[in-house]
Design brief:
Blueprint: E1 14-18, E2 21-24, E3 29-32, H1 35-38, H2 47-57, H3 70-83, E4 89-93, H4 96-111, E5 115-119, H5 128-132, E6 149-152, H6 157-164, E7 169-174, E8 177-178, E9 184-185, H7 188-200, E10 204-208, E11 232-235, E12 246-250, H8 269-284, H9 287-304, E13 310-316, E14 319-324, H10 328-337, E15 341-342, E16 344-346, E17 350-353, H11 361-374
Helix pairs in contact: 2-8, 3-8, 6-7, 9-11
Amino acid sequence: MKLYDVYPLFDIAIEKGKGCKVWDSNGQEYLDLYGGHAVISIGHCHPHYVEMMTKQLNTLGFYSNSVQNPLQQQLAERLGRACGYEDYFLFLVNSGAEANENAMKLASFYNGRTRILSAEKAFHGRTSLAVEVTNNPKIIAPINNNGHVTYLPLNDLEAWKKEIEKDDVCACIIECIQGVGGIRMVEADFLQGLRKLCDEHNTVLICDEIQCGYGRSGKFFAHQHLGVRPDLITVAKGIGNGFPMSGLIISPKFDAVYGQLGTTFGGNHLACTAALAVLDVIEGEKLVDNAAEVGEYLIGRLKSEALPHVVDVRGRGLMIGIELDVPYKEIRTRLVKEQHCFTGCSGTNVIRLLPPLCITKADADDFVERFKAVL
């Protein structure tokens, strides 16, 4: 049997990591400004994380949700305090797409509607409804194209108002900083206006914080820069520092019903341990503050340098987009091959930076010099 060939891969096998560095099978060191697609939040192989995971794995890795799991309650309480939503509820699942699927399902149970508003350039996952609200026809299979979704321009409140006032919209789903869409920023006036419209028309507001959340923006959630409390918040990626896990944070306006939502693997003992270890490190090492400080520093450095081909630098915290006037492919490839530095990308001409939240200013300076060398 061979692997199903759907990933364009660099000819590199990463074998180990530490902090913001990884090493390949030849022993070559790389600076990681990608974090495995924003997944590595507290750094590769953090000793506290490794210790807690090892201890739990030697105790119990998994049992089903048919019995009590005190680690789930511990995580709910800790996460509520950390993010400022102690009055909300937590439902644990396994991936960002699954979190978004359950968010939209819960919204539809709540108001009985079936239409979703999503933003142009949005990315919310690859499963059934999550891919339908993703604005990329190339990855929406015919079986997923069911007419549930209307895509609208980001920050154009009048366009969203026109649709919401039809009183048939189940939910609006928003990334407050678009990731795959090219680090596009939601404006406060737009999100506050959208919140008001949703309240007036019994429409559910979902904030997809899968990539922009969990401290990456310099606040725990990106929407917290914008003065709005969503009805549903989805989290994944950085929640487990590489262990597959996600969650749905649920407003008190929703009533839990036995059997309405469910999962086999979600919230298992090892996953909860990973999430608790991540919160320990985020809080103990003040990584949300570090994301704000180092992110501002790195954005400032990139903007202050006279960098050829760079036409815009945008973002917040450690979610940064560098827009180029040429396709990103050659520059990104040279960063990997010549400068031994991993970055992400968006569209055709945006370099995307999603480093671990423990990145230092020295690491940021190091990246800028490597980036200058390939421009």
